[in-house]
Amino acid sequence: MRLVAYALLGSTVACAASGSARAADLPVRKAGPLEYVRVCSAYGAGFFYVPGTDTCLRVSGRARFEGGYITNYTRQAGTNGGDTSGYRGLLRINLDARTQTAYGTLRAFVRLDAGSRAGAAGVGRSGTQERLGLAYIATGADENGRVQQVMHVDKAFIQFAGLTAGRASSFFDFYAHDLELSNATAGSDVASTNLLAYTATFGGGLSATLSVEDPVFRRTPIFAPSGGIAPVAPVLAGYMRGVPSGFANIDSIQRERLPDIVGVLRLDQAWGSAQISAATHELNVGNIALGTGTNAAVAHTTSAQGWAVQGGVKLNAPFDAPGDVLYLQGAYADGAQFYTGYSTFSGSAGQSPATIQGQKFQQFFSDATIDPVTGQLQTSQSFTAVASYLHSWSPDWRSAVFGSYGEQSFGRGARLAQGAAFNLVSSLAGSNPFGANAVGAPGTRFYQLSQALRDTYQFVAGASLIWSPVKDLDIGLEGYYTQIGLKSGRAIDLDKSPTAYANIAGINAGTFVPRTATQDSVSQIRFRVQRDF
User: Fold this and answer.
1) Is 92 in contact with 115 (CB distance < 8 Å)?
2) What is the DSSP letter of 214?
3) CA–CA separation, 146 vs 177, rounded Å?
4) Are 63 and 530 in contact (CB under 8 A)?
5) How distant is the alpha carbon of residue 219 from its chain centre?
């Protein structure tokens, strides 16, 4: 028994020694130092250091609900007429990253907007966003033209040593609907474009910026009587004994060629801000395709250079109440209507969009027409003036009043020249090939009443009331009135006489007398709940 005990004890010691040797061979893991998120106070509230870097990051965002009502007096088929309400649910995510360098602050900022919109144009659905590729539409029988889903890269830019590069707001803009819920006034507001800019600061709040910007987000179409997604404009050709015997068609879709050049001089002081902006904008068209009865070549249309200027001032008015501010702004453009923002309410990036469902006549927003005799571009002119005032009644309540006036005019003789082309093309084709974009033959009753290329005006007036019961929460209500009108003469009322353009001969002969109008108007109310974080 004693021998057995010694044997068991020896085995136990051997096993223990062997186990200790193996344990000593295993690597020992040491816990790494914990990296805590640290507050970065260099750039304001909300920034923190990205662990392991010297970059400060702020994550913020927004959630918004909107509902609205817009007056509507028609239920015509094919126009979405009858829609009076609209709803929107929107989200926004912001990422702001900043790093201090020997050259100053290096900043990258990105913003993603997404949402669902439904209902009446101007309240829920946005035709401008569709035309610019910022939204896509539903296809259901009851949803088509009424429902949009939005996914929009609103911002994605880098700033470094005075340089701004990426997707950002146009440097041309100043007021940009800062005090409005609906962006109703006529004024430039291009929140997202692709640009490369340099800003020089001179001290005392004075700065100057030179910006090269993507022209496609400032495009208003060249007038084309045919309209549609492949518009062409006719030019007279094939002259015999001084009389045109045929016509050719010019592809009026503009190409991406020269960028827009924007120059800005800005002053920021304790009393407010002031800015002067100027921009150049190239207009161009495609080649000529020979048409009916031509026997002679037509000179190629040359490009034209449009331009715009704008001046604005922002006045802080704390003598009335803390936070009060007044904006005044005016803009003028030749061949660059998007820079005055004259089409903001009706809809931009289209030849004749309409926010007023069942609108009595269309406004035309073309930057230029093509002279059918020479084939050259004739620019249009536009101007807008905006005023907006914000007043704080208490820390929780504030309201704004705003208004604008604008006009667009087409080149001298442009409508008369288009009428001459209409007369020839219609006679050769045996009918009116232009539809509602027809100008008509000069000297006829239809020419006097047709809507295309008429000089128009627009007037907007509105007010809002916003309650902020807690920080970063806004509950607001806004209402406004918009009137569009002809500067002279009358136009066919398309709501009361929707088939008039199919009976041009009857109008000229006096056997068909269409209803006419000189102006149209609409009112809108919008309710918003918005939470920023």
Assistant:
1) no
2) -
3) 25
4) yes
5) 10
**What pLDDT is stored for residue 2 in this prediction?**
45
Alpha-carbon distance of 309 to 279, in angstroms, equals: 7
For 161, left (φ over 0), alpha (ψ -120 to 50), or beta? left
The single-letter DSSP state of residue 79 is T
Contact 360, 493 (CB under 8 A): yes
292 CB burial (10 A radius; 0-12, 13-18, 19+): middle
CA-based end-to-end distance of the chain: 82
pLDDT over 90 percentage in the chain: 66
Strand partners, 97: 57, 108
**DSSP for residue 16:** H
Tokens of 184: 């109703």
Q: What does the pLDDT look like over 469-488, one tens digit per residue? A: 999 999 999 999 999 999 99
Closest alpha carbon to 279 in 192, 211, 363: 211
CA-CA distance, 521 to 73, in Å (whole number)? Answer: 11
Tally of CB atoms within 10 A around 306: 26
What are 272's two structure tokens? 């407010």
Q: Residue 139 contacts by C-beta under 8 Å, 6 or more apart in sequence?
A: none
What residues contact residue 89 under an 8 Å CB cut-off, 6+ apart? Answer: 64, 65, 115, 116
Give how far Cα 514 sits from Cα of 116, 224, 422, 492, Å: 40, 25, 20, 6
Token pair 């019961």 is found at 469
Rg (alpha carbons) of the chain, rounded to whole number: 32
Six token digits for residue 177: 């609907």
